[in-house]
Amino acid sequence: MTNLPSQADIVGQTRTNGGPAVDPQVRRRVIGASFIGNFVEWFDYAVYGYLAATIAVVFFPEADPQTALLSTFALFAISFLVRPMGGFIWGHIGDRVGRKNALSLSILIMSLSTFCIALIPGYDAIGLWAPALLLIVRVVQGFSASGEYAGASAFLVEYAPAHRRGLYAAVVPASTATGLLLGSLLAAGLTGLLSEDQLHSWGWRLPFLLAAPMGLIGRYIRTKLEDTPAFRELEVEEHSEAAPVKSLLLNHWRQLLLAVGAVLLNAVGFYVILSYMPTYLSEELGLGTTESYLATTIALLTYIGFIFGTGMLSDRFGRKKVLISASLLFVALTVPAFMLLETGSFLVIVLVQVLLGGMLTLNDGTLPSFLAEMFPTKIRYSGFAVSFNLSNALFGGTAPFVATLLISLSGNALAPAWYLGAAALVSLVAVALSRETSRMPLQHQ
């Protein structure tokens, strides 16, 4: 946590984005609660991706390995289809009832649904009911996750000093990556320490069992916070939007479309580079499972280190310049980077993943503040949640499935790289057409 905003940044009773004064002690609690809560949510959500190959054997044992893996990633993708609906619902709750209430409820739902995955019997015990129950729980997970990233980002941006919104919002992707990191470490430990039979019979369930206690701790911390000064000011002035989603679709549809496009690189890049990569390295390139997890773990560590730097860069140079730089780098370097992965050298693979992760931080560390600033306070949660979850539903959750399918259809292991480069190109256009927001006060309309 040493890279978080320092006492010098928040000394004294400062005013947040032109709003009410905020005690520095409160800001520190907000940072901690946002980090821990988002960390718990995304650890829960990421474990499924890291253990996909094992889950495929447990729930689809009668299929050939590639079909089983496709089926597992199809469940991963289907759970994302509920996320746009979740974005509408969580956005309404967050803009009408409050950011804190939405975040406290979402983490509870996520933790309980993840815990339930550990209790589902395998295909050998209950047949087709096993994947059916897994699908139901994954859908609940997707609904919960649709309110987390947007809510935590809005929460931090509305508490942040005006000149540090990018740095504060970078806490969200950093905590997300930390959740992925723990998931990767656990997956690597389980595959390294347990036999294949032990992993398939009970070992894969252990990370999911951790969800309940971690989620309850995160929820407790969140319930002890006040809602953001910006939201409380809307309540006092009675300026809150009665139908925030309707206002978003009628009055801010252009910002919504640009936001969906801007999220595309994050959606595809995040799941290809940080979630799907261990499976890609082991199943497509033949790298050992433990080595695949270890390479991704190292990349995640550097990603977390880079992310706060990109938040600060966006505060200094503007959101658009940093986001455009990320898109250009991915358009130019993704295919060559994936070609280097095919060398099979563990050192080269680690360096390539560190490079890709560093490029991704330019997008991920800037995107939360960029999206939060695109929409006025009274519809901020809705605007962020709908755009972020719509893009992730269409392109993020489907990325592992599409990558695996493209390789199967084309016979070319570089197919995911071309897909990621195309996503970067779309994001480049969307960001270029958007306005710069880093120097503007948060809108109170």
UniProtKB/TrEMBL annotation:
Spans traversing the lipid bilayer: 42-61, 67-90, 102-120, 166-190, 202-221, 256-273, 293-313, 322-340, 346-363, 384-407, 413-433
Domain of life: Bacteria
Subcellular locations according to the entry: Cell membrane
Region Disordered, annotated ranges: 1-21
Domain Major facilitator superfamily (MFS) profile positions: 30-439
UniProt keywords, alphabetically: Cell membrane, Membrane, Symport, Transmembrane, Transmembrane helix, Transport
Pfam families cross-referenced by the UniProt entry: MFS_1 (PF07690), Sugar_tr (PF00083)
Membrane topology: Multi-pass membrane protein
Record keyword Cytoplasm present: no
InterPro entries for the chain: H+-coupled_symporters (IPR051084), MFS (IPR011701), MFS_dom (IPR020846), MFS_sugar_transport-like (IPR005828), MFS_trans_sf (IPR036259), Sugar_transporter_CS (IPR005829)
Protein family per UniProt: Belongs to the major facilitator superfamily. Metabolite:H+ Symporter (MHS) family (TC 2.A.1.6) family.
PANTHER family the UniProt entry points to: ALPHA-KETOGLUTARATE PERMEASE
Name of the featured protein: Proline/betaine transporter
